[in-house]
Amino acid sequence: MLERSNGREETGFLLSLLDAEIRSEVLKASTSLTLSLGDKLFSAGQRIDRVLFLASGIASIVVVSRSGRKTESGIVGHEGFIPTGALAGAEENLTEIVVQAPGKAVAMDMEVFRSLMAKHQIFSDIVICASHVARTQVECTAAANATGTVSQRLARWLLMCHDRVRGDQLQLTHDFLSLMLAVRRPSVTDALHVLESERLIRAERAKITIRDRQALETYAQEYYGLAEEESARVFARFHAQISEVAGRHNLAL
Fold this sequence. Notes:
InterPro entries: cNMP-bd_dom, cNMP-bd_dom_sf, HTH_CRP, RmlC-like_jellyroll, WH-like_DNA-bd_sf, WH_DNA-bd_sf. Residues 14-117 form the Cyclic nucleotide-binding domain. By secondary structure, this protein is α+β, with helices and mostly antiparallel strands. The chain has a single domain, classed as Jelly Rolls. It is 48% helix and 21% strand. It has nine helices and eleven strands. It has helices at residues 12-16, 20-28, 110-119, 121-147, 150-163, 174-181, 185-197, 213-220, 226-252, and strands at residues 31-35, 40-42, 50-54, 58-64, 70-76, 81-82, 96-101, 103-109, 169-170, 201-204, 207-210. Strands 1-8-3-6 form a four-stranded antiparallel β-sheet. Strands 2-7-4-5 form a four-stranded antiparallel β-sheet. It has a three-stranded antiparallel β-sheet with strand order 9-11-10. Strand 4 (58-64) and strand 5 form a beta hairpin. Helix 4 (121-147) runs antiparallel to helix 9. The radius of gyration is 19 Å and the shape is globular. Residues 244-253 have low confidence and may be disordered.
């Protein structure tokens, strides 16, 4: 399970891994944003001139085909940054990124992002790890789409959304679920009924309540957990570094 959102409204998970001095420097060079449902943070083909670190909420990463068909390839919350192409020096964003759950974000200009990457090794390492975790999520999505049932894939996405919000209620419309799963709305309705019949969730208009998370994870089988375990693994060393620094400071006192 991914470390669930704990209300880090100011910084989010990634920036919380920095020591206080570097984090303060980052925040002073950034601006705070309020993310509202439906906000388009980036368009496909848009020039990348800023980077956003989410503190809360959920952003949906959507691939738009030449014919205009939209398919979600991943989501990002308090554990990530967008767009990940900024790390590779891409000049244009290839996907559409839209807010699916309201929240907060920290935004910085590309020049600031590059400067911080060059100046602070730990900032660079954290960003690289976050990009790796995001790529792992996309790989797991491809595997789930290839072999999982619609209801298993829905269980996986609900768990992923649950990881990124506080509480057990998810504000998700049928249209969003259809986009997430790349299926038509009737298939979404059928999958919701399956999970409801197992008493795993309660579905209401534009709202889903997680009733039994552990059972939902069991239902999702191997389609949920790999990316989340990888996230815990790669970020564990930063927790260790923070503990070590804190220990040195305590000894100095």
